[in-house]
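Whiteboard transcription, Tuesday session. T.W. wrote the structure tokens on the left side:
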């Protein structure tokens, strides 16, 4: 199973999520070229390298008609009260408007006034914009679902109908690029499951046109209802934006610790501000690993005294081919001094009926005994090891404080046959430094 895991120890914002996912893409430049041509007019999107606490990652920059969404931090004894900069697109600005209420998303530190006017998009206009983008229907639907979460949260926060929620042009087109970009990248990666860590929302307060608000801001808190989030009280400022919260709420099926997985890609999406902790969202992409260490098994046992060794061997082969976990025999003494064979088949509980039928079919027994046991086992993986004799498959197993390594028997016998060597000679040679290529 392909798993995409978001580590949100420093919150989440739309551009940070997109940047982290972009680092997982096979060809980031090709993706950015595609994103730039989906039909968001007046928007310039670029990716640049960014270093936080010695870690190099990617920062996404979005320019809307020559303007960039920039935060104005609220300071408290020279402590930043804001976690990110332009990635906080959903925030309401202190513009001079003729209407009485601001049905925009929160400013979280945008306390500057513009003397010029800006256009504001309604929720219906945003839906119209998305419907005309040059993206797949799946991407459109996911983007709409994310925006619905934001609009409903803003509606509750400001006490206005969803139809009256408006978004500032610069911040909203910025958010549109991030949301659609994330939806496109997730479609490209095509994970089977998406998991997020619990989200650090930051702490303290933020200043917006409505006044001083607590962190998390009302819209963010509404979106995150029902999902695990926390404040570590270390970073003063808003770390999780409504866009970041809505993206994770929509896509993540779980909010928990990172599962055991074989990681094939790691991405770092950087925020703008610098803190004592690396201001980044980290993504992990890879295959899940089953961590079962035991399971219930069924053992079928019967006694045989009228079958040849060849016929018993054939019965074993048939059972192995259909999924038996193990099939083995042992010599026993039977009544009237007859020498017989105890025949045992071990299988999964769900394979019981199939195995019973085949044992009756391919042996001469008239009765079978059943035992249910618990089987403990080590985790296993196979590695292809290149040697001067070709590829040798290595079986590795570990667990319970034990690690075992063993070459595949069939590969060893093949090398022995092809080179006129004994099995011991092959094993001895492969164990030397020159045995591997």
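and on the right, the sequence the group agreed on:
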């Amino acid at each position: 199973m392909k798993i995409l895991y978001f580590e949100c120890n420093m919150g989440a914002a739309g551009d940070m999520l997109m940047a982290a996912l972009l680092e997982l893409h096979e060809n980031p430049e090709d993706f950015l070229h595609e994103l730039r041509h989906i039909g968001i007019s007046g928007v310039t999107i670029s990716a640049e390298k960014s270093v936080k606490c010695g870690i190099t990652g990617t920062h996404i920059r979005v320019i809307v008609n020559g303007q960039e969404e920039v935060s104005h931090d609220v300071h408290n004894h020279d402590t930043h009260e804001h976690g990110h900069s332009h990635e906080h697109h959903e925030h309401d600005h202190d513009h001079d408007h003729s209407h009485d209420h601001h049905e925009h998303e929160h400013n979280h530190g945008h306390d500057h006034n513009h003397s010029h006017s800006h256009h504001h998009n309604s929720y219906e206009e945003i839906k119209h914009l998305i419907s005309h983008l040059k993206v797949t229907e799946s991407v459109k639907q996911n983007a709409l679902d994310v925006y619905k979460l934001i609009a409903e949260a803003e509606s509750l926060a400001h006490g206005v109908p969803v139809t009256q929620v408006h978004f500032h042009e610069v911040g909203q087109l910025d958010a549109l690029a991030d949301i659609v970009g994330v939806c496109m990248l997730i479609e490209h990666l095509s994970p089977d499951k998406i998991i997020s860590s619990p989200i650090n929302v930051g702490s303290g307060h933020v200043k917006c046109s409505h006044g001083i608000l607590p962190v998390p801001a009302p819209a963010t808190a509404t979106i995150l209802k029902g999902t695990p989030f926390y404040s570590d009280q270390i970073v003063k400022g808003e770390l999780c934006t409504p866009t970041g919260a809505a993206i994770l709420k929509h896509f993540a099926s779980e909010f928990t610790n990172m599962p055991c997985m074989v990681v094939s890609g790691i991405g770092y999406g950087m925020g703008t501000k610098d803190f004592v902790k690396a201001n980044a969202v980290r993504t992990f992409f890879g295959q899940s690993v089953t961590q079962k260490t035991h399971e219930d098994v069924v053992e079928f046992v019967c006694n045989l005294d009228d079958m040849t060794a060849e016929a018993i061997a054939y019965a074993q082969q048939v059972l192995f081919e259909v999924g038996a976990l193990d099939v083995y025999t042992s010599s026993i003494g039977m009544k009237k001094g007859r020498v017989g064979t105890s025949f045992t088949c071990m299988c999964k509980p769900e394979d019981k009926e199939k195995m019973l039928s085949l044992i009756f079919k391919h042996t001469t027994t008239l009765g079978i005994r059943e035992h249910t046991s618990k089987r403990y086992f080590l985790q296993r993986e196979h590695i292809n090891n290149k040697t001067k004799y070709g590829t040798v498959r290595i079986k590795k197993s570990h667990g319970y404080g034990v690690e075992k390594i063993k070459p595949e028997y069939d590969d060893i016998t093949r090398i022995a046959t092809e080179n006129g060597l004994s099995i011991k000679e092959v094993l001895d040679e492969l164990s030397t430094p020159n045995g591997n290529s």
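Someone added at the bottom: The radius of gyration is 31 Å.
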